[in-house]
Backbone:
């Protein structure tokens, strides 16, 4: 059996949409339809109910989905074993939020080009929900998650680092360089420009500010940390970001750290599919990611 039919089957099961499966697999929608029909004919059973709201697995489809995923995993292991003694080559897709993509992953890629020039890394900016979906679907080989805890079925994760957070304002802001630390009550009266919802540290700060009795903080969310950083540099309010993302503007005076309540570190987790055997290239990328964060931690100390 052509395992491409099983890849199409699992993609359609995830997306519940012929259009969505075609986009994920970079195929024409008609090709997805033909491949599903071919698989159903080969297996002698209907795998999906075609409904107005999408393609939903039949009882037979649900029974066969786990087996199909197992076949695809076995195929992946077969190819990995075949290249065990050769050079480390291949493409590795890494999912991570913008916070890590901008501050850390360029350094990881630069080091990999020196150590393993035949390994190509593709970055997919994504939050935790999309990263977990990508790991489960096989679209991502690994992901970096900024979460205090990672507990998702089928996902294995290890904490590899902590990122220190900094409360920031423009140099001319009234809270800049103030001798007395700002309190939560004072901060809750300020305007904040934060990364989009789903960003763990921004969500934590928003919840903490909104928990202040009688407070009505003005919170503006951006899909880009650069947009939030620019608004703060223009004197429009405050933000919180990992130190690694603002080291340069802090050095050159575009931003100033605000003395205030203690902020928790945010954990960085390296996450992978629990049952999928990583390729040698994926292992090389993971090893370099861990090495990068350990070195960054030593420099921070």
Residues:
């Amino acid at each position: 059996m052509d395992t491409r039919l099983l890849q199409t089957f699992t993609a359609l099961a995830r997306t519940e949409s012929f259009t969505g499966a075609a986009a994920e697999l970079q195929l024409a929608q008609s090709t997805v339809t033909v491949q599903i029909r071919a698989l159903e004919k080969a297996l002698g059973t209907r795998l999906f109910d075609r409904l107005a709201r999408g393609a939903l697995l039949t009882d037979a489809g649900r029974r066969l989905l786990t087996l199909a995923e197992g076949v695809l995993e076995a195929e992946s292991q077969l190819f990995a074993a075949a290249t065990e003694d050769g050079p480390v080559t291949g493409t590795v897709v890494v999912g991570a939020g913008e916070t890590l993509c901008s501050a850390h992953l360029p350094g990881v890629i630069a080091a990999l080009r020196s150590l393993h020039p035949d390994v190509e890394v593709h970055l997919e900016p994504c939050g935790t929900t999309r990263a977990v979906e990508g790991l489960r679907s096989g679209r991502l080989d690994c992901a970096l998650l900024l979460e205090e805890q990672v507990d998702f079925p089928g996902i294995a994760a290890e904490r590899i680092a902590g990122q220190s957070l900094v409360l920031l304002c423009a140099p001319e802001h009234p809270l800049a360089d103030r001798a007395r630390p700002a309190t939560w009550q004072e901060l809750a009266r300020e305007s904040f420009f934060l990364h989009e919802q789903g960003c763990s540290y921004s969500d934590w700060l928003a919840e903490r500010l909104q928990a202040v009795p009688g407070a009505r903080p003005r919170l503006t969310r951006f899909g880009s940390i650069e947009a939030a950083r620019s608004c703060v540099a223009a004197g429009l309010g405050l933000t919180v970001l990992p130190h690694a993302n603002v080291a340069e503007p802090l050095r050159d005076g575009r931003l100033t750290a605000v003395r205030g309540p203690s902020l928790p570190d945010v954990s960085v987790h390296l996450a992978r599919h629990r049952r999928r055997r990583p390729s040698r290239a994926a292992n090389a990328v993971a090893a370099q990611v861990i090495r990068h964060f350990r070195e960054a931690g030593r420099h921070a100390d």
Notes: The chain has a mean pLDDT of 90. The CA atoms of residues 15 and 21 lie 6 Å apart. The longest strand covers residues 155-163.
